[in-house]
Amino acid sequence: MSPRLIRFLFYRLCFVVLATTVSIPSYSQAAKKSSINRPWMNAGLSPDERASLVLKEMTLDEKISLLHGTGMKDLSPISPLAKGSNGGAGYVVGVPRLGIPDIQMSDAAYGVRESGKNGRYSTALPSDIAAAASWDLEAAHEYGALIGRELRAQGYNMSLGGGVNLTREPRNGRTFEYLGEDPILAGKMVGAVMKGEQAQHVIGDLKHYALNDQESGRKAVNVNIDKRSMRESDLLAFEIGLRESDAAAVMCSYNRVNGDYTCENSYLLADVLKKDWNFQGFVLSDWQGAHSVAKASAAGLDHEEPGEIFYGSAMKAAVQSGKVPLSQLDDHVHRILRSMFATGVIDDPPQKGVVDVEQGLAIAQRLEEQSIVLLKNENSQLPLDASKIASVAVIGPHADVGMISGAGSAQVDPPGGNAIMPPGEGATHWQDHIWFPTSPLREIRALASHAKVQFDSGADAMHAAELARNADVAIVFAYQWESEDMDLDSLALPENQNEIIEKVAAANPHTIVVLETGTAVTMPWVNKVSAIVEAWYGGSHGARAVARVLFGAVNPTAKLPMTFPRSEEDLPHRTVVKPPDASTTHGEPDDWKIIARGLPPFQIAYDEGLKVGYKWYDAEHKQVLFPFGFGLSYTTYSYSELRVTRGKDVSVTFKVTNTGSRDGAEIAEVYAALPEAAGEPPKRLVGWSKVKLAAGESKEVTVLVDRKYLSIFNVERDAWQLIPGGYTLLVGGSSQDLPLKQSFELP
Ligand code: BGC
């Protein structure tokens, strides 16, 4: 026996003797003890029971501490960032005495934010609008699960992702963070993302509630819209998202709706969210979106971020003087506590670890491959056959080194810094154009290994055209950058990119355009190029996914979650309504005081009402560039044999056949035209199914349509109503290609 082994056995023996003579409480005994002292730690009780038990023990100060954040470095001097912050946008001090942990919040729209500053790494997934283009609920769940895992590995227990404002105004600078223009698609997708996040035991959050559909003047604008329109459009997306996911938090937005700031809007918070939808979680303000104590509290704001202008000592005084009833305060606290129990952040707190980089890259690539929309493919220009191509011209700003990403609080930091900066100088700043180090040139070279692949940035369009002239194919990478806190003035590609495409297309009949955009773009060159691929903001491995689509390793399946209009002239509003100068602030240190008091409102009338996106173009008989739900594939599909059966849900059965020679997956879409008396736009999406089909294969597909999706919101009755009459269901591969049709009567 080795001396080491003898030593080990001796110590082990001593331990056993000690453990049997001196009583060392086991883990389970300790847990039992803690659940005796802290009965709320009994996971067998419901989240509400557990929250009530904690609440009974809390002092007024402890309650108040849960109702507000503790500041944000960039927003000092509102309040300093407390020491225990994990470096995210929000930090709430818990109640250690009672075993209630801190809440560590991070932005996480397409990945965890501010990892660079905190010396960490996170995966950038394809932007949210890209995720919506997959129309794939499993993929959306995986999207959320990855974010949830990376949040936890970085020490966060709450996500501030979940943006689901409808694309009512495609120039909105945050369109890339949202899930498109249809409430049912966006609602189901955000629901799946949130379910994926919360399954990892982080608190999920839907935002920005509600009608924060433009960024210009977001802290001042008063959105005017009728109730029916908001219930059937923007609010429906939130309603579905919450129903599908049980997301524990909702962030109220900066703007006003019909006169009141959303964070003190009793219609939105008390009547709709908490009463009608029975939301049991908590409402937190957008950062500096709170404007009062008693009014906000009565309306249903539960928590203020990032500081405590209203929900700190002012709230305490209001409770003590009776201006805010104690029962109201308790309700706010109860909602926060029950959310913590319900999502598992108390029973299973995050453990810091190393983010799984390899797994993240693989998932980001796979999700992007499912999100790339093939918009045009004349003469089967794509996929490219690497064995037959001798030369490729890769053209476009920074297409040699990276792909663009979306900015603002959604920004994920690229490893090594901004790819267009010299090494070591890549720190990222608010509203920089950040390029991820995923190089289209390198990935194309890897797949076209026998071809001569050359690059031109396009800075001189003529020069780029010369390169294109002598190549077998020209691939132009065009980008459009977007950010929070700004809107686009137009949907045109920035810089000289339209010129580059025109000149390259004139020089080479095999010109392919790859778009890296966060929203729709106008395409004056649409008829001159042979193929167009919408890659959105492609995430950490975007370029590899794009190259695999171009060279046919991946057969595209995605479809547009928003309409691409022909021009801004066709939008409901010719220009984005901007705030008059007087109502904006100017970056002065005391601006927060002015914002807190409330900026003078300026008005916007969303008088297109429920005609959002394709509903607008359909109703107004406007032609579009590419319709909602549109996307090509390297194979083709046909539809037949529609049957509609009326039951609790309406059941829609039909056959889809892959009529081409490649395996693929078709997103089969179901729309409904309501009876004339409903007074609705011509049709609405009511369901879909993504069907995998081998070449030549047929499958019968059934889509169940919830009757609510066939209903309208009746304002007098304050309820959804199915209008009796003739309905038509339409089925096909895009909102403008619906070969199957069947009419029937309801109810
Ligand atoms: C944004 C939110 C974000 C918050 C915290 C705000 O400016 O509107 O979406 O979660 O900042 O960073």
Count of DSSP E strands?
A: 29
Mean model confidence by pLDDT: 94
Taking the sheet with the most strands, its summary is: 6 strands, mixed
Q: What Rg, in angstroms, do the CA atoms define?
A: 27 Å
The geometry reads as: globular
The first-to-last residue Cα distance is: 85 Å
Strand content: 15-25%
Q: Count up the helices.
A: 20
In the predicted model, the low-confidence regions spanning at least 5 consecutive residues are 1-32
Bound molecules: beta-D-glucopyranose
User: What helical percentage do the residues reach?
Assistant: 25-40%
Q: Biggest sheet, strands in spatial order?
A: 10-17-16-15-11-14
Structural class by secondary-structure content: alpha/beta
Quick tags:
747 residues, disordered N terminus, binds beta-D-glucopyranose, six-stranded mixed β-sheet, alpha/beta, globular, 29 strands
Word description of this protein:
- By secondary structure, the chain is α/β, with parallel strands linked by helices.
- 28% of the residues lie in helices and 19% in strands.
- The protein is built from 20 helices and 29 strands.
- The chain has a six-stranded mixed sheet, with helices on both faces. Strands 8-7-5-19 form a four-stranded mixed sheet, with no helix packed on it.
- It is globular and about 80 Å long.
- It starts with a helix and ends with a strand.
- 55% of the residues are buried.
- Residues 1-32 have low confidence and may be disordered.
- The site of beta-D-glucopyranose has 8 residues, from loops.
